[in-house]
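From: lab user (bench 3)
To: helpdesk
Subject: output format question, protein + iron/sulfur cluster

Hello, I'm new to running complex predictions and I'm not sure whether the block I got back is the full result or only part of it. Here's what I submitted:
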Amino acid sequence: MTQINFAAEPRHDWTLPQVEALFDLPFMELVFDAASVHRAAGFDPSEVQLSQLLSVKTGGCAENCGYCSQSAHFKTGLKAEKLMDADVVIAKAREARDGGAQRFCMGAAWRELKDRDLPRLAAMIGGVKALGLETCATLGMLTPDQARQLKDAGLDYYNHNLDTGPEYYGDVVTTRTYQDRLDTLAHVRDAGMSTCCGGIVGMGETRRDRASLLRQLANLPSHPDSLPINGLVPVSGTPLGDKVLKAGQIDSIEFVRTVAVARIVCPKSMVRLSAGRDDMSRELQALCFLAGANSIFVGGKLLTTPLPGQDEDSALFQDLDLRPMGVAKAVAPESVAAA
Ligand code: SAM
Ligand code: DTB
Ligand code: SF4
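Helpdesk reply: Thanks, we reran it on our side. This is the complete output you should expect:
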């Protein structure tokens, strides 16, 4: 039997062997424990939060993240584009809201934010917030002052991923350090914004690396408010994408284990079934929701790669009796009549 105290407050003192022991649990027990933690943390397991992404500045990035279609270091065939005008972004956000998204995340292929771009970003963020959407951005590394300015502009969430555990990190990217990422996350927290921080699985890392990533996330000074688990989308021309296209993708049961362990070590985070959903069967997605995932990206496209479309996701939600978070439960006609 596992020793999970479902009523416990979130912990920040996980050891690597403890997280590895969760991964090693019999699968049925692990998923059951994760589902129990999901409920004990106060979540309604039928509710899933919906976010939509937009790449507001695409390609030509100076970093060499070995999975990324947008790095200038690799030939992926992606066409680079300049920072979009605020009104174009706001129009896309309106469409996302009308399609059912609750949060709108603006992504830029930058190593770090430059001060000269702040006024346009502030206009975008203010305009998106005025639509009644939660705002999120992922713009690379930030200084403390930039984080404060984004917060003042109305930014609710900042996404900055650790991507993998510190031991495998050097195999993924060499142009910024793990500590750089931790520093940006600290600036985001200090500015009073909510954090969105997770990683990627299926990049050729070991189970220990996955455990090490989740341990890092759980031992942050506060757990990420949103915790995206991205399945690597293998992009041809990137070193990690090419490796995975040759060797094959991560086993889907191991992916579900990763989601379940994320739910257990960060019980109150919104665990997002993030990139990679386009390649997943409905059954695999259902298992991920059962294991505690309660957030997804919607809208047919992530930043540069595809997602399931609205019709497919609506059918999945209907068949799994899921509903978008914040939308009232449908009331059966007979119970309305009886009231
Ligand atoms: N440039 C900024 C940065 O790296 O922080 C923001 C955009 S970047 C594309 C955001 C995140 O997307 C990365 O940290 C990575 O976790 C995820 N990502 C990028 N390419 C991916 C891929 N091919 N498969 C899965 N996740 C990916
Ligand atoms: C996150 O963790 N995943 C999203 C979001 N945060 C910015 C991005 C996934 C990108 C997948 C590859 C692409 O579409 O370019
Ligand atoms: Fe640039 Fe972000 Fe892609 Fe890394 S993940 S290459 S920082 S856009």
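A quick orientation on your result: The radius of gyration is 19 Å. Let us know if anything else is unclear.
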